[in-house]
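Researcher: Sequence recovery benchmark, item below. Answer with residues only.
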């Protein structure tokens, strides 16, 4: 058994190009997890509104 599974998505096999992940995307996910962990952010749910209230559109002038 030489095929390893990606530790991030755990469904796809590891790509030689992006190992130990299956893709750039999963590598980025792992990196961001690692960075967040090292930033010591307290367990705060990411339920911040992702809407921009009343942003003016300069292209509409
Ligand atoms: Zn993956």
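Model:
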């Amino acid at each position: 058994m030489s095929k390893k599974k990606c530790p991030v998505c755990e469904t796809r096999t590891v790509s030689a190009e992006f190992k130990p992940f299956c893709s750039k995307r999963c590598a980025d996910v792992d990196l961001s997890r690692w960075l967040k962990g090292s930033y010591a952010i307290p367990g705060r749910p990411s339920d911040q509104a992702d809407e921009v209230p009343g942003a003016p559109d300069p292209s509409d002038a």
